[in-house]
Amino acid sequence: MAASEILRVDFLCVENAGRSQIAAAFAEREASERGLKDVVEIHSAGTSPADEIHNTVVEAMAEVDIDISDRSPKWVVVEDLEHSHFVITMGCTINEFSPSAYGVEHRPWNLRDPEGEDMETVRAVRDELERRVNELFDEIEDVARDLESKESLSKRVTKTIKNALSF
Predict the structure, then answer these.
(1) What does the radius of gyration of the chain's CA atoms come to, in whole angstroms?
(2) Residue 26: helix, strand or coil by DSSP?
(3) Of 10, 43, 83, 140, whose CB neighbour count within 10 A is largest?
């Protein structure tokens, strides 16, 4: 991975109307709060997108002051996953995509689908996704720090070489 490379994270589920939307929203918040907005690119998509995000999911996220009411489910674009660093799936598979062939880390977060569930269940899924996203961002923060360190070292080496070559 190049030092200037953006870390791409893809959250995928079947309908892109629940779990992946929740995870992406928490990831966006974490990127912002940790000062990683310029380092992390977050996407969510579905293998068979619904027409809209589940109302209970919108409501559960509003309870934690995150508004996802203006979002829409999207299709997975398999070719885009080749550029991802982390592909997080939640109850779906992408048979056309082999993460290991592209050096992509795949993590299956097989959590209960909140569609049609009561608010207590939706909240439990939301809270578990928040916990997992926080843990993922602990790792991402370490990777970003390593990239920054490598870039800093590269700049210092380049400067030293330029200075050495100038007469």
Answers:
(1) 19
(2) helix
(3) 10
The three-class DSSP label of residue 13 is strand
Report the phi/psi class of residue 12: left, alpha or beta, with left for phi > 0 and alpha for psi in -120 to 50: beta
Q: How far is CA 29 from CA 23, 64, 99, 139, 149, in A?
A: 10, 11, 26, 16, 24
Closest to 109 in 3D by CA, of 44, 32, 37, 38: 44
Q: Quote the distance between the C-alpha of residue 7 and its chain's center.
A: 9
Integer Cα distance of 58 and 16 in angstroms: 13
Residue 40 token pair? 């992390």
Paired with 40 in beta bridges are: 7
Give 15-26 pLDDT, tens digit per residue: 999 999 999 999
Neighbours of 130 (CB within 10 A): 19
pLDDT of residue 53: 97
Q: How much is the pLDDT for 28?
A: 98
Order of all β-strands in the sheet with 40-46: 40-46, 7-13, 86-90, 105-108
CA dist., res. 15 & res. 18, Å (int) = 7
DSSP, collapsed to helix, strand or coil, labels residue 108 as strand
pLDDT computed for residue 2 by the predictor: 34
Q: Which of 162, 90, 76 is nearest to 128 (CA)?
A: 90
pTM: 0.83
